[in-house]
Design goal:
This protein is of the alpha+beta class. The chain has seven helices and 19 strands.
Length: 377
């Protein structure tokens, strides 16, 4: 049984960044698919003497425990104890294992695991002139999950991430990219936005003037595998300081804050081997913030792709510079339509079936690019 292992590398004198998108090529036994995927990732990392920076595993909740067991068994010594974000789409629609995304690094120094409250939760990498931090699967503690509302869980989740950043003299102004994994997103997305808006306003990311410093972000209806209401991943640039460019309006879309969502359309930051462009989750939304192509999956897909490419063009990034991409489809029917056109772009796709942030939205894309330096292998 074959799997697709798309590897993109970017090299500099200080480090080599490696992005891997691993997806099953055909239907087959879950354990065999998972073993081939994780063994393939392991072999790429070992052959490049690379270490994990961030990892996400996508699939069905009913199968995720077994998938993670196979991961642990396959990785062996390359597993540093930091769990990947395990993210689940619509049960009954999503493939048992839809894909795995890995961001890894080869450098003279090894990423150090970060531990909060006794649990590994991220990594920090120091190379000459650059310090890069990742957090994965940050969520409210079990006590809050049991007693707190979804909005309360989101508030505590963000406070928890902030507390880790503060340990390194940083805050959310050092964060170019967040991912918000929101189970049952359609029932409480407005509440989530109120929590995030208040949090960012109190910390100066949203100001009275026109300058905003909000991370690029994805807020999507994927459920953390443990069943909590929300979890988040992020990346932070601790050195060089003040090196992040936040773009509230870019491409064909205006600032999302105008319709109540506190994120930048894109950001650009220093990363271990160069510069990285983070394109936020993007959908078929016009410059005024209105959904377009309602009821037309093909129209939404085409418009979304063009919106993302417009951002990339404005950031001087080409299609071949894209090192990670996720397509979020509302149903299997939307996924089938997307599958008929996705090979028109040379992007390393992982596809998930889940709810988008508005009931009428059928499709969303996020992308990460490293301009003018990417090479595929």
């Amino acid at each position: 049984m074959a799997v697709n292992l798309d590897t993109r590398t970017v090299e500099s004198p200080a480090a080599t960044e490696i992005y891997i998108a691993a997806t099953p090529e055909e239907n087959g036994p879950l354990q065999e698919q998972a073993r081939k995927i994780f063994a393939g990732i392991r072999d790429i990392l070992l052959s490049n003497k690379a270490h994990l920076l961030q990892e996400r595993v996508f699939g069905a909740q009913s199968e995720m425990k077994e998938v993670l067991r196979v991961r642990s068994e396959s990785y062996g010594g390359i597993d540093d104890g930091v769990a990947p974000s395990a993210l689940c789409g619509k049960e009954g629609m999503c493939a048992p294992i839809a894909g795995v995304q890995v961001h890894a690094v080869t450098s003279d120094t090894k990423p150090e695991a970060l531990v909060l409250e006794g649990s590994p939760c991220g990594r920090i990498l120091r190379v000459p002139g650059r310090t890069y931090l990742t957090l994965s699967g940050i969520r409210a503690p079990q006590s809050t999950q049991e007693t707190g509302s979804a909005a309360e869980q989101a508030k505590v989740m963000m406070q928890k991430a902030e507390s880790i950043l503060k340990k390194f003299g940083a805050d959310f102004l050092s964060v170019p990219r967040t991912w918000m994994w929101l189970c049952d997103i359609l029932s409480w997305y407005d509440d989530f936005n109120r929590v995030r808006n208040k949090f960012f306003t109190e910390r100066g990311l949203i100001g009275a003037d026109s300058r905003q410093s909000m991370p690029a972000s994805t807020g999507i209806g994927l459920c953390p595998a443990d069943g909590c209401k929300c979890a988040m991943d992020l990346t932070a640039v601790l050195e060089p300081a003040d090196s992040i460019q936040f773009l509230g309006a870019v491409g064909k879309q205006q600032c999302a804050l105008e319709y109540g969502s506190a994120f930048s359309r894109a950001s650009r930051s220093i990363t271990p081997a160069g510069e990285t462009v983070f394109v936020s989750g993007t959908a078929s939304i016009d410059a005024g913030g209105a959904t377009t192509n309602i009821g037309d999956a093909s129209g939404q897909i085409n418009t979304t792709i063009e919106n993302v490419r417009a951002v990339l063009r404005d950031m001087q990034a080409a299609d071949e510079d894209v090192v990670q991409a996720i397509a979020y489809c509302k149903t299997t029917e939307v996924e089938n339509i997307f599958n008929s056109v996705k090979d028109n772009l040379p992007w390393p796709w992982v596809t998930m079936i889940c709810d988008i942030c508005r009931p009428e939205l059928l499709f969303e894309i996020e992308a990460t690019a490293m301009p003018k330096k990417s090479s595929s292998g």
